[in-house]
Specification:
Blueprint: E1 10-19, E2 22-32, E3 37-41, H1 48-55, E4 63-68, E5 72-75, H2 87-92, H3 100-110, H4 126-138, E6 144-148, H5 156-173, E7 176-180, H6 184-190, E8 193-198, E9 201-207, H7 221-231
Parallel strand pairs: 3-7, 3-8, 5-6, 6-7
Antiparallel strand pairs: 1-2, 1-4, 8-9
The chain binds adenosine-5'-triphosphate.
Adenosine-5'-triphosphate is lined by residues 19, 24, 42, 44-50, 182.
Organism: Luedemannella helvata
Domain ABC transporter: 10-224
Protein name: ABC transporter ATP-binding protein
Length: 241
C-alpha cells in the first residue's frame, strides 16, 4: 500500500486507466522514495508501460493523483535518438543551462562514449545507442529515472553490461528509479523492491534485501527468483538457479 510520506519522491494514488471497455489500471497505489530502485514486473499487457507513462506525465487520460517532486527523466526500450542530429546534440536536446556542452561530455564519458559525441546515431550499435539514451537522461541530473524495458532489445551480453553500468551510475548519482522489465533476473540484480502488476493492481511487493554487487549464484538470489517466477506463473527450467 502506498501511504503518502513526505519523504516520497513520487506517489501515485488510485491510478485508473481504461482503453475503451478494457480497464488496464484499476486504482494503482505506488510510491517511490529517494534513491530507491523499484522493479515493476507483470505479464505481457498487464499495464506496466501504461503505469510508467502515467507517472511520467505522458498520459492525460488517466484518473487518479500523481504527486512528485524533483526532476524526472524517462528511458524507453527504443533509444528514440533523432537520426539527423549527432550524438552530443541528441544528448543536449532541450537541456537548459549554460554549461550544457561540458555536462553532455561528462554524461557521455560516464556511459563510456566520451569519443562518440560527433557520431551519427546510425553509426552506433544498439547497445551504444541505448547508452546515449541513458546519457540523455543523466545529463538532466534526475532524481527519478523512469525506465521502460531499457535493456529489453539488447543481446544478453550487452544487457549484462548495461545492468552493471546502471548499478555503477546508481551508486554514484543516487537517483531513484522505476524499472519496467520482463526479466526477473534483471529485477533481482538491480532493484530494492519488486512490484508485480496483475489485474490492474499491485498484487505483490517483494523486498530484495541482497547486498550489491549481486549475481545469480549469490545466496538468497535463487529463492527469490523461484518465488517470483512461480508468482508470475513461469515454470523454472532445471538449468536455472
Ligand atoms: N494507446 C492504447 N490504445 C489502446 N489500448 C492500449 C493502448 N496502450 C495500451 N493499451 C492496452 O493496454 C494494455 C496494457 O498495455 P501496456 O503496454 O501497458 O502493458 P505492458 O504490461 O507494458 O505489456 P508488455 O509487457 O507486453 O510491454 C494492453 O492490453 C494494451 O493493448
Amino acid at each position: 500500500m502506498a501511504t503518502r510520506l513526505d519523504s516520497d519522491l513520487i506517489t501515485g494514488r488510485g491510478i485508473r486507466r481504461a482503453f475503451g471497455d478494457t480497464v488496464v489500471l484499476a486504482g494503482v497505489d505506488i510510491a517511490i522514495r529517494p534513491g530507491e530502485v523499484v522493479a515493476l514486473l507483470g505479464g505481457s499487457g498487464s499495464g506496466k508501460s501504461t503505469l510508467l507513462r502515467v507517472l511520467a506525465g505522458l498520459d492525460d487520460d488517466a484518473a487518479g493523483e500523481v504527486t512528485g517532486r524533483g526532476r524526472t527523466a524517462v528511458v524507453f526500450q527504443e533509444h528514440r535518438l533523432l537520426p539527423w542530429k549527432r550524438v552530443a546534440a541528441n544528448v543536449a536536446l532541450g537541456v537548459p543551462g549554460t554549461d550544457v556542452s561540458a555536462r553532455v561530455a561528462r554524461a557521455l564519458a560516464e556511459v563510456g562514449l566520451a569519443e562518440r559525441g560527433a557520431a551519427w546515431p546510425a553509426e552506433l550499435s544498439g547497445g551504444q545507442a541505448q547508452r546515449v539514451a541513458v546519457a540523455r537522461a543523466l545529463v538532466r541530473e534526475p532524481d527519478l529515472l523512469l525506465l521502460d524495458e531499457p535493456f529489453g532489445a539488447l543481446d544478453a551480453l550487452t544487457r549484462l553490461k548495461m545492468q552493471a553500468l546502471f548499478n555503477r551510475l546508481r551508486a554514484e548519482h543516487r537517483f531513484a528509479a522505476l524499472l519496467v522489465t520482463h526479466d526477473v533476473d534483471e529485477a533481482l540484480l538491480l532493484a530494492d523492491r519488486v512490484l508485480i502488476l496483475e489485474d490492474g493492481l499491485i498484487a505483490q511487493e517483494s523486498p530484495v534485501a541482497l547486498p550489491h554487487p549481486r549475481a545469480p549464484d549469490d545466496p538468497g538470489f535463487g529463492g527469490l527468483r523461484r518465488a517470483l517466477l512461480a508468482r508470475l506463473g513461469v515454470p523454472a527450467s532445471p538449468d536455472q538457479h
